[in-house]
Amino acid sequence: MANATPRPQRQEFEETVTDGTQLSWALRSVLWAYDDVQQHVADLMDLSERDVRALEHLMERPDLGPADLALLLGISTASSTVLVDRLEDAGHIRRQPHPEDRRRKQLVVTQHASDEMLANLRPLFDMLKAIDDDFDEHEKAVIESYLRKVTDVYGRFTA
């Protein structure tokens, strides 16, 4: 199970890198903490962290096929096939014909897997909602604007 203390490599990295703003360091901490969240959910569901990431992608974008998933996870299509087979055998996803392209398969998260994932994440969602409630509408708008701009920058950086 993941813990909340910084990993030694992270601490060394933070001490070595001298550029970046207070906000960017806080954001890095959030991203690293989310890695721990994914590992925790993986442990709860008896899956790998990559399996959880795959389920998250499929829950967010139900039009994905195995090749799309490979691209999003940064793995080969052969590895994606193995991952999809494993998730399908475990009852977490099912393959079905793509509604618009007969040559493609669409990967659909089963209701059971969706329910389990959301049940495991519900305490986190509740804690995040409590944080949201600490801010007024103007503050929320500023925070949301910042996060959307960061998302855009990350997208442009990786394009």
Strand order of the largest sheet: 1-2
Q: What is the number of strand segments? A: 2
Mean pLDDT: 89
Strand content: 5-15%
**Helix count from the secondary structure assignment:** 7
Instruction: Indicate the low-confidence ranges by residue numbers.
Output: none
The oligomerization state is single chain
Largest sheet: 2 strands, antiparallel
Determine Rg (CA atoms, Å): 18 Å
Helix-strand sequence: HHHHHEEHH
- Span between N and C termini? 34 Å
Structural class: mainly alpha
Outline the structure in words.
Strands 1-2 form a two-stranded antiparallel sheet. With 159 residues, it is mainly alpha-helical. The protein has helices at 8-16, 22-45, 49-60, 66-73, 77-89, 111-132, 137-158; strands at residues 93-97, 105-109.
Summarize the entry for a quick read:
The chain has helices spanning 8-16, 22-45, 49-60, 66-73, 77-89, 111-132, 137-158, and strands at 93-97, 105-109.
Topology:
Blueprint: H1 8-16, H2 22-45, H3 49-60, H4 66-73, H5 77-89, E1 93-97, E2 105-109, H6 111-132, H7 137-158
Antiparallel strand pairs: 1-2
Keywords:
159 residues; 2 strands; 7 helices; 69% helix; mainly alpha; globular
